[in-house]
Inverse folding.
């Protein structure tokens, strides 16, 4: 079992997740880790914006974050997060998304959504994914801090359809009755919110004069398709340098009895120095 360190009560956090759909780890990043995250993100920011209302026209996203530096590798395998995932997902769960999200001043609120909405299995149901969002800048009610609807993780499809206007469209009209239930997460830099993939939430509007930087790692059941295709996104020469635990999270493992095999071999074999692709090797 992962060592979650002193002062972290996994059961209390798990109970909050079950009851309200989310929990906050206030001291998630040390000041040193926070500084390393800032330094690691700096080269990628200041160059682009989102392509639609969901990504955010005044929001910068840095995808495949997990492969962009040691600090991000370590955070994706944080023992406290893994201890919580162990209680909600099956062994062999996967990293499904890993991205930084910088919401710039003037950004409008994101459409309300839930992160496992990709999986079209009727609600209410257990979450198929869990998300983490780490505040790199302190979250406030004005600067685009994540807004959530506590308890919405147990809503059924009809309640969620009321929220979306019955559509997954990123520009769907939203139900004012539900919008009034949104609560901003106010939390210090370095804090992490962990929430179930069924919880309704959104990135808030940034009405302040400074950007709001955060990053999000999300994890899904081992049988679910991941949002990011990390096999193609992370080149083999980078994958070879990653820890065995992280490789497992990235899909370099088998969901028993044989989901994830590579031409009948274990996917880790593809990272061996002398690996030759079987299709090429066996070409007549
Ligand atoms: O940036 C945030 O606070 C939330 C972003 C989010 O929910 C998403 O992009 O799916």
């Amino acid at each position: 079992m992962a060592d979650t360190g002193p002062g972290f009560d996994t059961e209390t956090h798990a109970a909050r997740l079950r009851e309200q759909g989310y929990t906050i780890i206030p001291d998630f990043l040390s000041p040193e880790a926070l500084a390393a995250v800032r330094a690691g993100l700096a080269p990628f920011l200041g160059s682009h914006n989102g392509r639609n209302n969901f990504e955010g026209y005044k929001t910068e996203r840095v995808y495949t974050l997990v492969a962009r530096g040691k600090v991000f590798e370590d955070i994706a395998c944080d023992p406290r997060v893994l201890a919580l995932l162990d209680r909600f997902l099956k062994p062999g769960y996967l990293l499904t998304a890993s991205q930084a999200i910088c919401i710039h001043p003037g950004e409008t609120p994101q459409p309300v959504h839930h992160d496992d909405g990709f999986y079209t299995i009727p609600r209410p149901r257990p979450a198929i994914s869990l998300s983490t969002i780490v505040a790199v800048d302190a979250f406030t009610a004005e600067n685009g801090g994540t807004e959530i609807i506590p308890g919405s993780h147990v809503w059924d499809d009809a309640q969620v359809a009321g929220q979306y206007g019955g559509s997954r469209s990123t520009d769907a009209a939203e139900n004012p009755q539900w919008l009034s239930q949104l609560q901003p997460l106010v939390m210090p830099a370095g804090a992490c919110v962990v929430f179930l993939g069924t919880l309704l939430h959104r990135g808030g509007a940034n009405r302040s004069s400074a950007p709001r930087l955060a990053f999000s790692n999300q994890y899904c059941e081992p049988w679910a398709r991941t949002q990011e295709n990390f096999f193609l996104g992370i080149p083999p020469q980078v994958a070879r340098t990653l820890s065995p635990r992280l490789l497992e999270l990235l899909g370099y493992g088998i969901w028993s009895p044989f989901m994830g095999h590579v031409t009948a071999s274990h996917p880790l074999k593809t990272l061996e120095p002398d690996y030759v692709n079987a299709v090429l090797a066996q070409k007549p």
Summary: The two ends are 48 Å apart (CA to CA). The domain at 10-252 is CATH 2.60.120.620 (Jelly Rolls).
